[in-house]
Amino acid sequence: MKGQYYWILALIFALLIAIFAVINVEPVEVNFMFGTAEWPLILVILISALLGGIVTAAAGSVRFYQLQREVKKLRSSTKGQTPAGRSELHSHNSKHGKQRSTATEVTKHKSKK
């Protein structure tokens, strides 16, 4: 359900940007570091929104892959631990408000199905 709200809000935001861009069609002067150009404001708005989305997606995907690598590293480091070691990890996570299931809990959950 959370994903649906995200897409609905993204669609509304894109629609608002499109309406705003269509209203502003007069040409404007765009100053680059190496010169100037005159473009329709609609292009400036749409290109800016598109580049903002691309930069945001790139930053989000970098963070996503960093977290994936960290999860793999943590899973491999806890693979050979004794049950006592896992309970110490569980108590550490509980102190910090993090709820994570151990490999034993996941196995028990899967075997119940």
Distance between the first and last residues' Cα = 25 Å
Helix content: over 70%
Strand content: 5-15%
Record field, number of beta strands: 2
Strand arrangement, major sheet: 1-2
Instruction: Choose one word for the global shape.
Output: elongated
Structural class: mainly alpha
Whole-number total of structural domains: 2
Helix/strand order, N-terminal first: HEEHHH
| Major beta-sheet overview | 2 strands, antiparallel
Domain Lipopolysaccharide assembly protein A: 24-78
Transmembrane segments: 5-23, 43-65
Pfam families: LapA_dom
Protein name: Lipopolysaccharide assembly protein A domain-containing protein
Question: What does this protein look like?
Answer:
The protein has 113 residues and is mostly helical. The chain folds into two domains: 2-79; 81-113, no CATH class. Helices cover 73% and strands 9% of the residues. It is built from four helices and two strands, in the order αββααα. A two-stranded antiparallel sheet has the order 1-2. α1 runs antiparallel to α2.
